[in-house]
User: Fold this.
Amino acid sequence: MEAQNRIAVLILKQLKGEIDSREADELKEWINHSEENRLLFRQLTDPTRLQTEFGAFYQSRTKILNKINEAISVPKAVSLWKKIAVAASIIITVGVGGYFYFAGKNQNQVVRSTPQKQLDIQPAKNGAILTLDNGQQIVLDSANNGTLAKQGNSKIIKQGDHLSYSSNQQDSASEIIYNTITTPKGRQYPNLTLGDGTKVWLDAGSSIRFPVAFTRNERKVEITGQVWFDVVHNSKIPFKVIAKNVEVNDLGTEFNVNAYDDEQQIHVTLLQGAISIGRTTLKPGQQAQITNNGKLQLMSSVDIEEVMAWKNGFFSFRQTDIKGIMRQLSRWYDVEVRYENVNPAETFTGEIDRNLNLAEVLKILEKTRVHFRIEEGRKLVILP
Assistant:
């Protein structure tokens, strides 16, 4: 905790322009220590993000602003940036281990993350089930490295957590052979490379069905759950993703599709390049929200960090109700959730590390006055 507080102080000094060269070198060393540190530093020093988070505190109720002022003494006549730095100091102090903010009807409070060990459930790990064309299943978690199988002219090669298909594009007249990769709840698969070089990352409770080698006329895959794509450019053969009744057409780009069956909408978010859904073309930073009856709404200002938090190792919530949070936890920790007299109108904002055990996550959430009980058989009960 002492080391975390030290980093929080250094980040705050940099925000306020008060850091000296020795401290700057110390902070730089911490940032470069890991990708997780680099991501956290970007999140905690992004001006737009800090203003947004501070705005949430400021607009909710005067009580929250008073709590901020009580936490750190700051004169009232200060610049907006100084105020943001004050709010950031609170966010950073808890942010090194995760932070959370609760917005209910009658109470708002900043929640400090102080997870404690207890009997709990571990977070999801890398793993998936590969189903071959003949129905044979291979559990990738325990499969040895090397060539797992041959499908047509394609080899399926596993190296650590990376699965790749080595093949040239098939002739258009050849029979198409399909494989499916499924991540059960409690599993994710971050490194799948399709036959054309397209990279795929599957979140927990997801699947992708794809040809082991694409034809010369078409590249089409079908998905469920949440999947990220980094598509190899080929202007002559667009890449198509089918999610429920939605078809996403892509020429070579990076995008995310969230199409879980238990969510009310499909969310397709474009990170780079260009994609189209029907007659609607998306630009980078835009998101298409499609209802189950096919109605599409294009959102131009989307928090990309929130959308991609799952891939970067975080749960990210923005005014999310308790059931929305529990749907994510249910997939990640492979638990069955039951509710007992919980107010569904209360919303939550914050980020939590997805590498924490379930009990540690619940300890953070319990600071919001919502309580939990873990029962035998991977059951989670939500209490008022």
